[in-house]
């Protein structure tokens, strides 16, 4: 029987990220010195996602070296994911970037765990074995979604392209050993009950996951395992890492499953998350589409290599990957979490939109054409409606006029104490070339004109405006700026 101590850490769910992080800091503040001082507490799995490490070190940067030593020695397992994603609610590219970032971040600490750990996802996409195998993984660990046709706790999981990994199925989930008693006899009884309950389904050695959602490490683990070994001869109990367990797991005579894992036969699949919170679904799709199909390809095509916006793209992807966590993008959390998710998507999309615009502007500057430039970012001929803003007062021939901004317009009308301060602020609106402040009968009280890129509201004009604050009755503010349609 292999005991894997761990915690499952939802960054945000029924409490906000910051509330959960306070608890995460407590956990790691306790775990690191405990492992440094107790060799019997030999292993710990930090939930397979690097985001929790970043979240902790942002508060405890001084703890990085101690954590690095524990990871480098194999006592703490981290990664390989950056966050544990919902596989059906994010794009395939997001899944790949998630693993890539997790592996890259793991390299800072001596390497991420080489196991496709998928403990709590609400089902699994058919291409997951292909993604894992493509990055060099040989094993996956799953719970939800395994169909009843799989009658062993180990099986071969095959993608549509034929790629396959050995999957370890946790029939009772990632918390089957969470309630570890501080009593060797009770511990042995619990192990015996688990083995009898699942019977022929189990492939030996058995996997006993000592942890669950936000669970603190149990300091008596090493002692209780030693006492349980001394108490009986039927089971040999070892505290191991997940990779150590899988290295000894049998691969002979196992069934094969091809395609997605989306059955509720033995575990609740929470299918409602695919149709709740439409605003989050739309935000995720729009943000991923803007990054994957606009910002990155247009920057690659049209910007010189030295202007590749790697840092900004990394920041946008970081927000998307934080949101891809299964209790974030799923919209199954409190409203504060959903608000945070929407905000992250908005920030990532703002970055992507801005980068796409800059790439297109660079292209436009290299095209020998005066006037608007329309770019088709798809890989096919395309027609449709294009909305343009062009200078002038007349719509170009063959177009439909949506809105016109005349060269001269009434900007504001009201009491002087409202209009005069607004006139002073026109200095900062570079498109406005002139203004007049008029009395109710149309008499011009103050007028100003900008010369080139010079000042519009000079000190003399400010004095003249201030003198009109006592003007009786309403006043009007007219402005002149380039007309457009």
Describe, in short, the structure shown:
The protein is an alpha/beta fold and 485 residues long. Helix content is 37%, strand content 12%.
Residue stretches low in confidence (pLDDT < 50, at least 5 long) are none
Number of helical runs?
13
Largest sheet: 5 strands, mixed
DSSP strand count: 14
Can you characterise this structure?
With 485 residues, the protein is α/β, with parallel strands linked by helices. 37% of the residues lie in helices and 12% in strands. The protein contains 13 helices and 14 strands. It has helices at residues 17-37, 51-57, 64-72, 92-107, 128-134, 184-198, 221-231, 242-248, 278-302, 310-323, 335-364, 416-425, 459-466; strands at residues 2-5, 44-45, 76-77, 116-118, 139-142, 154-158, 164-169, 207-210, 238-239, 256-258, 408-414, 434-438, 444-449, 475-480. The strands form four sheets. The protein has a five-stranded mixed beta sheet with strand order 4-5-7-6-10. A four-stranded antiparallel beta sheet has the order 11-14-12-13, with helices on one face. A hairpin with a 5-residue loop joins strand 12 and strand 13. Helix 6 (184-198) packs across helix 7 and helix 9 packs antiparallel against helix 10 (310-323). The protein is elongated, with a radius of gyration of 31 Å.
Task: Summarize the helices and strands and which ones pair or pack.
Layout (H helix, E strand, L loop, with lengths): L1 E4 L11 H21 L6 E2 L5 H7 L6 H9 L3 E2 L14 H16 L8 E3 L9 H7 L4 E4 L11 E5 L5 E6 L14 H15 L8 E4 L10 H11 L6 E2 L2 H7 L7 E3 L19 H25 L7 H14 L11 H30 L43 E7 L1 H10 L8 E5 L5 E6 L9 H8 L8 E6 L5
Parallel strand pairs: 1-8, 1-9, 2-3, 4-5, 5-7, 6-10
Antiparallel strand pairs: 6-7, 11-14, 12-13, 12-14
Helix pairs in contact: 6-7, 9-10, 9-11, 10-11
